Amino acid sequence: MLLGLVLLMCAPACGPAREVLLLTAQPSRPKEGSSMTLICETQATSQKTDAQLEFCFFKDGRALGQGWSSSPKLLLPTVWREDSGSYWCEEKTTALRATRSPRIQIQVQDNDASVVPGRGCGLPPEGIPVWNVSLEVQPPGGQVQKGKKLVLICLATQGTGDITFSWYKGTLGLNLETKTQSSLAAKFEILAVTDSDTEKYYCTADNGYGPSISELVSVTVRSPVSRPVLTVGEPGAQVFPGDVVELRCEAQSGSAPILYRFYHEDVTLGSSSAPSGGGASFNLSLTAEHSGNYSCEADNGLGPQHSEAVPLTVTGRADLGVIPHPRHLLSQNQPSCTAAHVQTSPLSAYGGQEGTSHLGNP
Ligand SMILES: *[C@@H]1O[C@H](CO)[C@@H](O)[C@H](O)[C@H]1NC(C)=O
Ligand SMILES: *[C@@H]1O[C@H](CO)[C@@H](O)[C@H](O)[C@H]1NC(C)=O
Ligand SMILES: *[C@@H]1O[C@H](CO)[C@@H](O)[C@H](O)[C@H]1NC(C)=O
């Protein structure tokens, strides 16, 4: 589709627009299931012009194929009996003066399917062509939660008469919807998005002068995190002051990035983010005060989820110093987190605090 719009090909038959235009079909009596090429030819007698010509083919009043194109030929890969009818072509220069060929009757000799209906390229009405077409996405930013509604609004700044809007998915342009309205904006909705709706989208608008295309707009479908599971060190292993335990929190599902926060009772130990999903861990140097319940929270902006509490008992060994070895000091992505051993009440944690904003509270 994109390709078709930028196709620049001027066939030998290009001539001044005022000449007589003739449509021919090859073969003129095609067989069902075979291909047919329509050729829009100017019987030019005067010199060639540099003007860029555009052509459009019609069958029984409906435009065929992609609408206006710089190619004076249109290949219909397979024709069927239903494709029999009255055909004509139109030619226009950039000056928007259009010429129409006389109609020709094509009878397809002797199945089902019909010619692809075109996206409007009627003889241009007196008016203003559509311009500055843009695609607006709701929710803004194109981040939409799985199962929620996505609205794609196709807007033109100006353009008179009925405007045919089309929405496309992916750079290859899967046509999602086409509708004609006498307004400068039209909307297309996907009521409940799924993962496969994460794509780039664009739209076109055409009021008879050929389609104008919008920019590509990215849409990302995001899903909320599931309830995370916290593991604290080796389950069941005895731990002593001075040991380092790894707290690991992981939500099985949820779109990245996910921010994890670790809690001891109601106190935040620190946070760690998983930029591309998965879990995150946090190392904690234990003191005797670190017994108690631990929990974690996963948050990707679509509603935080809290894990179940996991109890930890630090077996007291009064004879051992509780000042951890520097290598036990936590450094998650930020090796410079080397605060001195400060005894905070009721616990002392060495958290790899990332500069991440706090997304929620327990
Ligand atoms: C083109 O359309 C966009 C979106 O509607 C609008 O913000 C912008 O002002 C328009 N540009 C011009 C030149 O009108
Ligand atoms: C925690 O410690 C373990 C083993 O000592 C190490 O493999 C892991 O990378 C550390 N994790 C963090 C977040 O520093
Ligand atoms: C940890 O949680 C359990 C169950 O929620 C509770 O019975 C227990 O008292 C808690 N322990 C501490 C030290 O708060």
CATH C-level class of the largest domain = Mainly Beta
For the record, the CATH architecture of the largest domain stands as Sandwich
CATH topology grouping of the largest domain = Immunoglobulin-like
What is the element string, with H for helices and E for strands?
A: HEEEEEEEEEEEEEEEEEEEEEEEEE
Distance between the termini: 50 Å
CATH homologous superfamily caption of the largest domain:
Immunoglobulins
Kindly estimate the percentage of residues that lie in beta strands according to DSSP.
35-45%
- Rounded to the nearest angstrom, the radius of gyration is 33 Å
- List all distinct small molecules, including ions and cofactors, that are bound in this structure: 2-acetamido-2-deoxy-beta-D-glucopyranose
Number of strands: 25
What structural category characterises the helix and strand content? mainly beta
Give start-end ranges of low-pLDDT stretches. Answer: 1-18, 111-119, 321-362
Shape: elongated
Tally of DSSP helical segments: 1
Organism: Ursus maritimus
GO biological process, one term: cell surface receptor signaling pathway
Pfam families: Ig_2, Ig_3
Keywords: Cell membrane, Disulfide bond, Glycoprotein, Immunoglobulin domain, Membrane, Repeat, Signal
